[in-house]
Write a structure and sequence with these properties.
By secondary structure, the protein is α+β, with helices and mostly antiparallel strands. The protein has one domain. Helices cover about 20% and strands about 25% of the residues. It is built from 8 helices and 14 strands.
Length: about 290
């Protein structure tokens, strides 16, 4: 299967993702809202992706074939920064990631939110988020969830019950054979409501571009499910870096998780991990005076 897909696509794209040469697709753009603290290590890149080891499958409950970032993490070069970081909110929701923030929850507020205290989620989370974002229907409030600390990737596949590794979401009612519809899918906002930082990981190439670059041999039915298409892409282009965005308590990201391969990570945070998630058509509001 691999030999069918290699060839012309590899000739034009391999090793040129962030180079000065021909880039065969528009990379996903990142916008960091000035509301966020300035951090040198806010955004980092991996050296690519890799398949999980047998030990990770057996001892850490990963799906066989799952893919993880190839470490170590490194800073962006000036060229990579110019290609990936946008100075303005990108106009295309389906191929942009936005980082923003609301005030971090106090210990008391977090306890009230976790305890389901009436009004706490609305006052401490929803109201501040509506001050910085526009939420268009259909909205689906997934709500609060938490993960163990120390996870390189945090998502457990509902069907397999195992860690999925880097993946694409399918919350929308997609026709799997209509890749273009993913450009119109809902996005999500995820707020770090926990006690310390967590990460958002993503590949800076959209699903539709992955499908196009793999070529006509990459029809979804050939891989039985979309999971195989995104894993196949990463296996064929293992040098494509994963972008890692650090989210301090109170930071949130808005991302097209139905169109971009991604995961969360709690790898080196401390204390309680907690996130609050809403799906919908979500955009960052322009800041007053800027
Ligand atoms: Fe996901």
């Amino acid at each position: 299967m691999r030999s069918d897909i290699e060839g012309a696509a590899l000739d034009v794209t391999r090793a040129h993702w962030f180079g000065d040469h021909h880039v065969s697709c528009s990379l996903v753009q990142i916008y960091v809202d000035p509301r966020c603290a300035s951090l040198d290590e806010r955004i980092q890149l991996s050296f690519g992706t890799r398949e999980v080891t047998a030990e990770e499958v057996n001892a850490l409950n990963y799906e066989p074939g799952a893919r993880l970032p190839l470490e170590p993490w490194r800073p962006l070069s000036a060229n990579e920064r110019s290609l990936l970081i946008s100075k303005h909110v990108p106009p295309t929701r389906e191929r942009s990631v936005v980082l923003s923030r609301i005030p971090a929850l106090s210990k008391n507020a977090r306890e009230a939110v976790i305890g389901g205290e009436s009004g706490a989620v609305r006052e401490e989370i929803v109201r501040p988020l509506t001050e910085i974002c526009e939420f268009d229907e259909p909205l689906h409030v997934i709500g609060l969830s938490h993960r163990a600390r120390g996870l390189k990737t945090a998502t457990i596949d509902n069907l397999s019950g195992k860690y999925a590794g880097l993946h694409i979401d399918s919350w929308d009612d997609h026709d799997d054979h209509d890749i273009a519809l993913r450009e119109q899918a809902t996005n999500r906002i995820s707020l770090n409501a926990g006690e310390s930082h967590r990460y958002f990981l993503f590949l800076p190439v959209t699903f539709a571009d992955m499908h196009r670059i793999l070529g006509t041999d990459a029809q979804p039915e050939r891989y039985q499910s979309l999971k195989y298409l995104e894993r196949n892409f990463m296996a064929n282009f293992p040098e494509l870096p994963v972008v890692r965005c650090k989210l301090l308590p109170g930071d949130c990201y808005i991302a097209p998780t139905e169109n971009v391969v991604h995961d969360g990570s709690t790898e080196d945070g401390e204390g309680l991990d907690l996130q609050f998630v809403v799906r919908g058509f979500i955009n960052l509001k322009a800041r007053q005076g800027g």
